[in-house]
Amino acid sequence: MHSRPVMHRQAAEADEGSLCNAKYLTPYSPAPRVARMLREAATHSSVPPEGRSTAPVPIESRALGTLSYIRASIDAAGSLAVPGMAGIVMGGIGMLAAGLAATPSLAAYWLQIWLAAALVAFALGGTLMARQAARHGHTRQFAPFRKFLLCLCPALFAGAVLTLVLWQAGMERLIPGTWLLLYGCAVMAASTVTGMLNMRLIGCMGAVFILLGLVSFAAPAGVHTLILGLGFGALHLLFGILIRQRHGE
What are the helix (H) ranges across the chain? Predict the structure, then answer.
């Protein structure tokens, strides 16, 4: 009577032992599809993507790139974007003044014509530059604009004083060369606070003004109006168009 329960218990213990051995002692052998997928994943992970370098990037190159970005940001914040339209407007006024001064009936008033044209061109050019800075919403642009005026105005003030002195001394023939020479110096000085893309163009324009001034000192008085028209008219137009084509402003 008691032998049957004992036999059942022994059979149950045997079954439990076989299940334990099957779970923990049987070697793991994945299905063929799973094994193939595992091999493909391992192969793809070990091969670098095409065109990508596995060499580590030196920390010096990262630091240099960061410093270059910081330097470019500082230069952009402290420089002034000169609109090409300002040069075009000033060049148009210069061409108009040259045309009026070349008119025989107005030739005697050439000094008054050029002085009036200079005042109008300076006012309109400054207004266009300030308007561009305000339109872009860059309030920090007004600090470079003040620096631009500080570089530009001393030479222009010297030109105004020398104009009065030469006129009183009866040496009007030296006035055109003085204007071109000092204006070229003013433009070259002001180019240092403009953007990197415009600095070279504006500096070259100032250098050409200086050359025209030197030519004017040696040229006869009959061609002074032509030289002034080439400088304050054609030169402003040319560089204004070049700046506008480069920046679209």
Answer: 3-24, 32-46, 59-77, 84-101, 110-135, 142-168, 175-190, 196-218, 224-228, 236-247
